[in-house]
Task: inverse folding
């Protein structure tokens, strides 16, 4: 019993601990074994409840053997559990700098509450006390003025307003600001607590220890701590300085950074009144938003503007705070706090604001890649059809000559996929073999042989009037963006088709095939280099770049997603102004008619299902004429398929004819992608066509008959 409980808690601890580690390139945490757990549970004073176990995990998390690292990719942001949200003065202050923008503040409170109720641990650093107090004190001053003084202020506008001391405004506004927060959060059943801090709280070890203890206790009680610098007693801001790697607290940006690191948070969201980091101040010529920012490589490419219209910080202050945070293993996103659902979208991995990352970025920016592909397609179109065919034949030869390198790279991908627990159907799509490379090379040579009339072929010739002819000819599309999943053999196929038709190409393959795609793309570049710029066909390295590419209608003419229905739908939704050539699943049928050559039918069925079951044109449903239930064909084909390790499922009409039949199919619209298929019975060819039209995906369907 004790061992059973121990194993249960061990699994719980492993799940809990793994939530704090991100990506596949990071060192994994040490494995927590039942033996280790037993030693913890038997330690005197250790609480052996689930809450006690969580506390044990927190203690283990600080152990040097479990190295936490900053989140590197947007898709992993949702795995962070402790999040600090910093609200800049420009976000929650009205344009007149007197009072709060209640609509924006209510939206932010709603998002923070939703995440808190989802199970995240939320902390907030807020500005706004000065603005709230300024509104309150100005109202008091106006009430004490005579009528003549009041009219004078209104006539002179801002110049006639009394100058208010910021510390006094902060003192007057703190209580009102927190009362407002409390009322808003209570609407969602969330409790809050105010924590006022000053710079000495971070420089004094005892104060810092007390602050950490207070915050940990509040988080444990499911209370959101709301922090602010105690501006009522704060000294004037000093010049920013960085002593011994510790950022000084000079504004709320640096305060939020220190807080995120002190509390071992996973993510810091700095909310401003701009969309993120731009290459130069927003609105200036050539300014471009950076969706990701690497302090090591991007700092030299950014020019900062002035400070915030309100508050002490500016974008340069935010970047310094964010860079320091990232260096202490806390992920950071700078975003526009006025954008709808910005916080929720960031946590869900959507491309909002600028994400700080230390992940290495390979290759040039995607905008440069798209531009080079456009230039390359013009060079490709200027070649003769014979030269384009030479490029493809050269690539076909390289696939054989360099097969050892290709297969070695592919083995790395396959081994990593197996270690990651990828489904067998996806692993089969990933695997390359010598036979596959031979077939691939032969297919490329066929493309080259038939490519000579792809461009400039006359499709229609009409004489409009005497001396005026109208001719329709084939021309290249331009630049293609092709997105495919874990099938590396698609890369040379698509590249060959693109070269044969004079189109530039941007390729984005699945991360599972990283090493395979890399070597195959290098071979494409090698084949292109003697004739056109190798950038004519480029490989996009990051999935985050797809969103950017789908906006570049000035460079990209057509998007072709190859993969699941979900992938196609997502690309269609995200593409802005660029046509998407989509497709549905590969629910493919083979119908064996009553007049079929049954020996040939067996061979066709086995080949269609077993040769490459992961292919999108593999057979998923076998339809047989009802007469074959009496000829023995049904029993024979089932025996043959079972010998090939195919799992057979029955359609409802087939099962109604059998006393003992296969397992019922859950749906007649299933694309299995592996060694499974459905068998169904139909009355005649018309019935088969009706079935295919109802359940098929219009991909590949076959009728076997001698009629």
Result:
């Amino acid at each position: 019993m004790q061992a059973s409980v121990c194993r249960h808690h061990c699994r719980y601890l492993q799940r809990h601990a793994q939530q704090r580690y991100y990506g596949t390139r990071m060192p994994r945490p040490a494995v927590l074994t039942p033996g280790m757990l037993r030693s913890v549970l038997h330690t005197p004073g250790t609480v052996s409840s689930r809450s006690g176990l969580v506390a044990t995990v927190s203690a283990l998390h600080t152990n040097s053997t479990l190295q936490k690292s900053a989140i590197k990719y947007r898709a992993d942001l949702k795995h962070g559990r402790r999040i600090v949200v910093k609200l800049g003065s420009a976000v929650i202050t009205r344009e007149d700098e007197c009072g709060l923008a209640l609509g924006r503040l209510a939206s932010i409170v709603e998002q923070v509450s939703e995440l808190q109720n989802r199970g995240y641990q939320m902390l907030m650093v807020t500005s706004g006390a000065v603005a709230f107090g300024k509104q309150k004190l100005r109202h008091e001053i106006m009430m004490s003025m005579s009528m003549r003084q009041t009219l004078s202020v209104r006539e002179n506008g801002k110049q006639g307003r009394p100058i208010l001391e910021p510390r006094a405004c902060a003192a007057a506004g703190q209580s009102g600001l927190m009362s407002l927060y409390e009322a808003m959060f209570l609407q969602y059943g969330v409790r809050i607590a105010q924590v006022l801090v000053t710079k000495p709280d971070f420089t004094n070890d005892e104060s810092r220890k007390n602050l950490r203890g207070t915050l940990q206790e509040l988080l444990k009680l499911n209370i959101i701590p709301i922090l602010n610098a105690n501006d009522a007693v704060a000294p004037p801001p000093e010049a920013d300085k960085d002593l011994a790697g510790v950022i000084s607290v000079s504004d709320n940006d640096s305060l939020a950074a220190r807080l995120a690191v002190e509390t071992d948070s996973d993510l810091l969201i700095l909310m401003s009144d701009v969309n993120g980091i731009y290459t130069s101040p927003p609105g200036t010529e050539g300014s471009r938003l950076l969706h990701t920012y690497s302090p090591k490589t991007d700092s030299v490419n950014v020019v900062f503007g002035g400070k915030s219209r309100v508050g002490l910080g500016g974008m340069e202050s935010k970047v310094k705070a964010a860079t320091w945070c990232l260096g202490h293993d806390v992920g950071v996103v700078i975003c526009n706090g006025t954008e709808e659902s910005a916080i929720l979208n960031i946590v869900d991995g959507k491309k909002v604001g600028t994400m700080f990352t230390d992940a290495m970025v390979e290759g040039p920016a995607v905008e440069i890649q798209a531009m080079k592909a456009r230039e390359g397609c013009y060079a490709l179109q200027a070649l003769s059809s014979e030269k384009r065919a030479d490029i493809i034949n050269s690539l076909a030869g390289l696939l054989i000559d360099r097969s050892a390198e290709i297969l070695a790279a592919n083995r790395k991908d396959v081994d990593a996929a197996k270690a990651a627990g990828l489904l067998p159907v996806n692993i089969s799509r990933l695997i390359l073999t010598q036979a596959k490379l031979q077939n691939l090379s032969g297919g490329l040579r066929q493309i080259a042989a038939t490519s000579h009339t792809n461009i400039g072929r006359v499709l229609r010739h009409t004489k409009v009037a005497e001396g005026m002819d109208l001719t329709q000819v084939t021309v290249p599309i331009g630049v293609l963006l092709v997105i495919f999943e874990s099938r590396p053999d698609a890369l040379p196929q698509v590249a060959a088709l693109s070269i044969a038709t004079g189109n530039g190409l941007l390729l984005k393959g699945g991360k599972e095939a990283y090493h395979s795609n890399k070597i195959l793309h290098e071979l494409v570049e090698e084949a292109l280099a003697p004739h056109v710029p190798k950038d004519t066909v480029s490989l996009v390295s990051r999935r985050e770049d797809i969103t950017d590419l789908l906006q570049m209608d000035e460079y990209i003419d057509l998007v072709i997603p190859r993969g699941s229905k979900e992938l196609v739908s997502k690309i269609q939704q995200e593409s802005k102004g660029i046509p998407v050539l989509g497709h549905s699943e590969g629910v493919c049928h083979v119908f064996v008619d009553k007049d079929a050559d049954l020996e040939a039918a067996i061979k066709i069925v086995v080949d269609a299902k077993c040769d490459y079951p992961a292919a999108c044109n593999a057979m998923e449903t076998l339809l047989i004429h009802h007469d074959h239930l009496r000829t023995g064909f049904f029993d024979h084909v089932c025996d043959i398929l079972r010998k090939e390790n195919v799992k057979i499922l029955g359609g409802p009409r087939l099962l109604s004819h059998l006393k003992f039949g296969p397992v019922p199919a859950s749906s007649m619209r299933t694309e299995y992608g592996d060694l499974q298929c459905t068998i169904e019975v139909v009355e005649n060819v018309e019935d088969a066509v009706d079935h295919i039209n109802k359940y098929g995906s219009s991909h590949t369907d076959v009728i076997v008959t001698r009629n």
The CA atoms of residues 519 and 557 lie 27 Å apart. Confidence is low (pLDDT under 50) at residues 1-66, 237-249, 307-313. The chain has 28 helices and 24 strands.
